Amino acid sequence: MQYTVAMKRVIAIAMQKGGVGKTTTAVNLAASLAATKRRVLLLDLDPQGNATMGSGIDKSQLERSTCEVLLGECDLAAALVPVKLPTEHGGFTLLPANQDLTAAEVRLLTLPIGRETKLRQALQPKRNDFDVVLIDCPPALNMLTVNALVAADSVLIPMQCEYYALEGLTALLDTVEQIRVAANPKLGIEGVLRTMFDPRNNLANEVSAQLIAHFGDKVFRTVIPRNVRLAEAPSFGRPALFHDKESRGALAYLALAGEMIRREEEASSPARTDGMVAASASPNAAPHVAAPQPAGPASHAPGAAHSVTSAAPGTAPVDHAHHDEHAEHPVPHAATGTDGGAVYAASAGRGDAVQHPAGDAAGEDRSR
Known about the structure:
With about 375 residues, the chain is an alpha/beta fold. About 35% of the residues lie in helices and about 10% in strands. An eight-stranded mixed β-sheet has the order 3-4-2-5-1-6-7-8, sandwiched between helices.
């Protein structure tokens, strides 16, 4: 593998309120992470099967699905479907779903014990075969969502900056705390993702400011704009990255993947540094200990960890209405310091599309 950090995480994409971009985030984030040469598994846990259809798989023609896996009628490996993408990096793997999943939920509710751990048990044999596992949850705090939260390491929360979404966020956080106490003490918050964001809307800016004040660095700096290409890509059965790779939506999800990778690098860099110090202090240390990175600007060092509070390339600054004149690299490259790839090179010159999700004064075409 050509990347430096294997994420090895199971991330549930959950939000009680519907229509906030859970499925759009699941499909496009899976494609963006796959473009960074990571092995990605997407689990469709929504009976609507929108993630399945958005990945180009016909949900009405499934022989095996999430339903059979949860009920123990087949192994996870037997139900997985490869999603081929038009790129040299291949694609991702999908566990598809359809309306049969509703019946599975009803049957799970009749089980006396262990009904909330079915997904975790089914996922366990294949968990180490993938670098990232994404779970698209239904828009309800039901038994399917509980199974996802029990199986996950963290929760990614997409939300619109509106009042009803704030209420849904409060209910979800209460559920996360209950799951943490009862069944999954390691469950954490991956981050809060602002979706369908328009900085010209005063309410959106006010809610965004409240989120940042309350959650701090847990709020992703990347903002997903309201974008026509993101909305129409599912009708073509492919992620926006391979529908229009230069659209604002596609670039935003590439930037989100890059921000997640940089966070993982930041989290692991103290451990690597401590290990190097301990090795150099040991009398039996190996003579070929890895040397520190050459001196120079952090943004140019391969594999350099970026501070979340700094103007990270390819991510939107907190003040979305103004361009950061001091950013050295406005072009998004979602895997800074790891593996750029042809996908990122193709987006060169459109970095402002991510930093200005609502369009600029020059009147750039917002439909892209």
